[in-house]
Amino acid sequence: MIALRPASLDDCAQVWAWRFAADVRAVSADARLVELDEHAAWYHARLLEPASPIWIVEDAGAGIGVVRVDQMADGSGMMSIALARAARGRGAGRGAIAASCQRWNKRVVAIIRADNTASQAAFEACGFRPAARTAPPFGGSQDLITYVWSPDGES
User: Fold this and answer.
1) DSSP letter at 143?
2) Tally of CA atoms within 13 A in the half-sphere of 59 that contains its CB
3) pLDDT band at 144 (very low <50, low <70, confident <90, very high)
4) pLDDT tens by residue, 39-91
5) Assigned domain for 78 exists
6) How far apart are CA 11 and CA 57, in angstroms?
7) In CATH, what number is assigned to the domain containing residue 129?
8) Domains held by the chain: number
9) CA-based Rg of the chain, rounded to a whole angstrom?
């Protein structure tokens, strides 16, 4: 059973480990490695932004990943998700994405690498639709696809 709980200061190192694992960065829109101390400074400040939640994804009470929604200027949210390797391929991502959208309950955008078919499938299974394709902003070699979801089903 996938559940979300608000992230806390105690989750900082684990969130960093999930987000900056080499296999996660390899398929991320931004594949740069951020050192733990830099992440910790960002994370501590970020937890003080109630309009942009960070949730820990739990399966049977154990943390297996993180979902973040960054509120954008228009009130919609930019979603980011990272799961532990052992949690992937079992539907946990779809469960976490769906639960996050339900909690956010406003328009959500996700930017996914064109070669990350697993993430594309998970977001599409939750009702996201591709809206645009762009070149990578971080100097990467893979195009990016912007996916959009809205609570009324209108992307």
Assistant:
1) -
2) 15
3) confident
4) 999 999 999 998 999 999 999 999 999 999 999 999 999 999 999 998 988 89
5) yes
6) 11
7) 3.40.630.30
8) 1
9) 15
Q: Is pLDDT of 141 > 80?
A: no
**Nearest partner of 11 among 78, 80, 71, 58, judged by Cα:** 58
120 inside domain:
yes
Q: What is the pLDDT of residue 135?
A: 63
Supply 60's token pair: 């049977």
Distance CA 16, CA 150 (A): 29
Cα distance between residue 58 and residue 73, in whole Å: 29
Give the range of the structural domain holding residue 145, as residue numbers without chain letter: 2-149
Q: Is residue 8 very low, low, confident or very high in pLDDT (cuts 50, 70, 90)?
A: very high
Q: Which residue reads 């954008």 in tokens?
A: 72
Longest dimension (CA), the chain: 40
Token pair in block for residue 103: 């909690």
* pLDDT at residue 55 in the model: 98
**105: its two tokens:** 């309950």
Burial class (CB in 10 A: 0-12, 13-18, 19+), 17: middle
The answer to whether residue 135 is domain-embedded is yes
Q: Is the pTM of this model over 0.70?
A: yes
115 domain residue, yes or no: yes
